[in-house]
Specification:
The structure is a homodimer of 224-residue chains. The first copy, chain A, is 75% helix and 0% strand. Chain A is mainly alpha-helical. In chain A, helix 5 crosses helix 6 and helix 8 packs antiparallel against helix 9. The interface between A and B is large, with 47 and 47 residues.
């Protein structure tokens, strides 16, 4: 058990180091030696967890979605749940270096040989699942094609965050994401649902506090 | 006159070389020597046109918008003109290496020390100008805040192109951009205008052919 905990910690230390090095040098220029130096682990430990530089990058890429999906509490309105996932992600981009590193890597159009499609496809699936539930309970307009709408949300979010980073290092991210939601949702959601949505800029921080509390309660609970 | 033409050609050759090197190595890792080697010009010629690596990158970044604005013919509907600018840009991204390089650089979140905000801000201004004209002639819904909507269009386009590049190297770009327009415009445009818009996936290619013809006619015309 102690060994397992140690292994998880080592893996996290390596991923944090990889995230930092990828952010500093870009995927292309980063080397495994730099990551080793930053993580302060042995070569053997690193290769036990990760086979290659691409493998390390995929680990960092995966961090952004794994954390995410666990954390948004269920909502009666599945459209609100989508908004909450998006707004929480925006909030975490502003505050969590690991989430930030994962997103930057997935936006690194210069990273040759790195398959960056994973996060887009996985986020697309999250979007599809939630939109299908919204559709099933009558929240969506009749013309909506779920995979198309999911991809529009995922793709446009990716660009809005990049623009916010370029212009003011994420200073206005939640404002921009709230504006994006107000622009996209009227063509997707029935008016009665639209009117009841919380699209405020503060939504991400609120959901984060709520989700954090739920996660902490779960960790304190005895394992089954 | 001949000298001026030569200078313009040299500048273009240097920019093309810079675009290629930035795409291959990323902004961070690229060096001026590599660009010199690729362009096949003297150091003196390069420094006559560009002072530094950042200056070269700004030159490549500027290429994507300068070409663009000249080329879309005026439309009676300013919203259609916006759609045409966006669709033409998507088409050129699929077909023009220089436009592609400029966009990739502006999306390079790892390019430290490079101010990538320029293209976002300049595209935002293009959007504002056209949206203001649309607003003046009653094409927009009353609640629209022009700079906000311009930024949503620019930012979301940036992400949609990045997603398309990551998933299939721009193979489905025009399909995705058409879907984006269909999702954004209903919350921006009055219904009667919306119904008359051409948002087809083929729109970019059509506008390109039209604009190319106009540009060629202009070049053939005697200078005033």
């Amino acid at each position: 058990m102690a060994e397992q905990v140690r292994a998880i910690r080592t893996r996290q230390a390596i991923l944090s180091a990889a995230a930092k090095i990828f952010e500093e040098h870009g995927y292309q220029a980063a080397t495994i030696s730099q990551i080793l130096g930053e993580a302060g682990v042995t070569k053997g430990a690193l290769y036990f967890h990760f086979q290659s530089k691409e493998d390390l990058a995929q680990g960092v890429l995966a961090e952004q979605d794994q954390h995410q999906q666990l954390m948004v509490p269920e909502r009666a309105s599945k459209v609100q749940e989508i908004v909450d996932v998006v707004m929480l992600h925006a909030h975490r981009l502003q505050t969590d270096p690991m989430v930030r590193a994962g997103v930057r890597l997935s936006m690194d159009q210069l990273a040759q040989g790195l398959d960056r499609s994973g996060p887009f496809l996985r986020w697309g699936e999250v979007g599809c699942t939630l939109l299908e539930r919204a559709q099933a309970q009558g929240e969506l307009l009749p013309h909506v094609v779920v995979p198309e709408t999911a991809d529009v949300i995922v793709g446009s979010f990716a660009g809005i965050q990049s623009m916010s980073q370029a212009i003011c290092d994420y200073g206005d991210l939640v404002v921009r994401v709230s504006a994006l939601m107000r622009h996209l949702l009227p063509s997707v959601v029935v008016p009665s649902v639209l009117a009841s949505l919380d699209l405020a800029e503060t939504r991400g921080a609120t959901v984060y506090a709520e989700a954090r509390k739920a996660a902490d309660a779960l960790e304190l609970a005895p394992a089954g």
